[in-house]
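Hi P.,

Sorry for the delay on this. The queue was packed all week, but I finally got your sequence through. Input first:
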Amino acid sequence: MEYVNDYIYVVSGYQDSTKKDVKTCNKLNLNTKQWEPMASVNKERRHSTVTYVEDRLYAIAGHSGTGSNPTESTTACMRTIEEYDIDRNTWTTLGSESYYPGAKGIHRHCAVVVDIRIFVLGGHDCSNPTNKVYIFNTRTKRWTSGAKNLHHTHVYDLGCSVVYLEDGRRVIYCGWWTLSWCWKTKLGPNVGSCQ
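Then the structure:
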């Protein structure tokens, strides 16, 4: 789910009544309080993240398949990213050079935007939790590794936010229950752990 210009975009998910992932996407117009249809994603996914950068939505990785347990053989962690053009109402699956860098894919992760970069933190690769941090550049469509991983290894189902400080720094805070982490980044690419 992502908020953009008086709309809340709801992208794909899981339908409990059918026990299946869905491709359906909708947007809620906050002015009229009405749901409006939008193009469906190319591949059904749940437990993905959706972010907004420069008039585009990005649905990052997730989990696809039938059944409610991500470790079942009928399910799979995804590595793909789909990009949504708001003006054209179209989803495009980005090429393999843009796949999430983890070998098994990822779901139940957290993502936040800083400038044109999407920070993807933690998650679960359908076998084990991960504390990896990867950064996706929306202009080059390429990934880089974060300078450091998150301190804790069981970091999935996170909540994250970016706080802009008066001195120009941005701090990414991630929390899971009572655990929390923060990352600092200046305008450049350096990322370091807050102590």
